Amino acid sequence: xxxxxxxxxxxxxxxxxxxxxxxxxxxxxxxxxxxxxxxxxxxxxxxxxxxxxxxxxxxxxxxxxxxxxxxxxxxxxxxxxxxxxxxxxxxxxxxxxxxxxxxxxxxxxxxxxxxxxxxxxxxxxxxxxxxxxxxxxxxxxxxxxxxxxxxxxxxxxxxxxxxxxxxxxxxxxxxxxxxxxxxxxxxxxxxxxxxxxxxxxxxxxxxxxxxxxxxxxxxxxxxxxxxxxxxxxxxxxxxxxxxxxxxxxxxxxxxxxxxxxxxxxxxxxxxxxxxxxxxxxxxxxxxxxxxxxxxxxxxxxxxxxxxxxxxxxxxxxxxxxxxxxxxxxxxxxxxxxxxxxxxxxxxxxxxxxxxxxxxxxxxxxxxxxxxxxxxxxxxxxxxxxxxxxxxxxxxxxxxxxxxxxxxxxxxxxxxxxxxxxxxxxxxxxxxxxxxxxxxxxxxxxxxxxxxxxxxxxxxxxxxxxxxxxxxxxxxxxxxxxxxxxxxxxxxxxxxxxxxxxxxxxxxxxxxxxxxxxxxxxxxxxxxxxxxxxxxxxxxxxxxxxxxxxxxxxxxxxxxxxxxxxxxxxxxxxxxxxxxxxxxxxxxxxxxxxxxxxxxxxxxxxxxxxxxxxxxxxxxxxxxxxxxxxxxxxxxxxxxxxxxxxxx
Length: 647
Hints:
By secondary structure, the protein is mostly helical.
């Protein structure tokens, strides 16, 4: 090393690079500048007096990437501090360890910035989305001024090309790499349908369930009036007392009581009065359900032609009339007439499901069916509590007030969900098809739907019949065991009427909680799996109830029972609501409600017979095993999409 090379020249000589070449990883580029101890002339390879600005090499040295940085000429007087001494201010002037000053920002041109590298997955996602820069101002470093940009990997380039071919979705043009379907804005009239249906159904169920805790006492009062002997009644002065019965004997009640007694003797039921009262009440409930079975499809067919709203108002008016007859009744015959009018007019439940089925999107239908189930749970929880807390004389008038409030509420707030262009062409055609539903076999085959205009396809009709059979079997077994539950807890645990009321309150509260949290979040397409799981839970539930000898076992069985009851009916209703044209939704849902009413009319009679003939354990064990039938039917049911593709 010669004297003129300086310390910087010696380093370049040892590294095999020409003087002025930038070392890789250095803080800044080397330019032709002075050495550490010499003046401007010492920077020119040891030759004194040579201008440093003329020493820009023609080509980059080895070890430097081509084209990354341009060389900028050194400023005159570079390499000297303020006092004129050289080699003392290389760090102050930014020359780095090798002694060469960095170029000024004005000489380098505009500075590009590279961001801190994010993770590999985030880099590919952003590159595919076309977001461009990932820069974070607080974590950047200067780059070269010659238009250099980081090159994308081949996979990133392919991802960006795929995204460029897609339509702009997500947050904006190029804002998301995940394609989304266009969002269908729900009309304002549809958005208020579900809350109106919920409140209307809740008012109706509160009025209906007010009677349930009073039914045993009401039937007992009619029984006492029927068997009470004539008693002397005081008359005026000088007249003999007259033997006048306090209440005239009711022949209709006597005929019903004899029928119940013969049936109890046939199945071997004990002659205890409490059991007879439960069986008598079950017979009245079966009559109500049988009338629903006859009239629900007719109500649905009428709504397909006339619209949902007018038929709903007519149904609610009939229910208000039934409560008015009940409030003014003084005999068992008048009470029975009120129950008959109520059973014929009880088509509002099937109309509520048809209104929800008219909604456009499957998620809205699923939420609507879950809300209907929640209304049932709340109604059957709060109604009996109100009926027990209030005086017996005021309960019928309260039910009448709730029915009138429901009628006024629907008149003011319920919109029409079935447009006129989608309605059935003829009311006669709908009634002719609904007349087929008087036959249980035609009911299970959905004959009114198959013979209507624009029926479902062959695969769709097969799935509909499959779901109808599952619905009927489930409610047949479930309603029967639910009816015999009162016999079991009184016979095994000596539950009083108040304790049974608390038990049913626990069941209703659990069902309402599950339907408000879990059932309403079941997404469309997952209902079949949810129903299978719930039906499978009923097997251990009823085994625990039938065989358990302790209250914890009974409580666990009732908890599983409540969970299944909260899930099965709303999910099956949501699945059935997706079948049929808009002009057939009322007939479809009316047929489903008719199947349920038939199951509730026959199930309690069959279960009570099995309970008293074979015993509680045998009854609950056999019925628990029979729940595997609807489970296996659902297991073999293929989704409609796959069935349609197979066709």
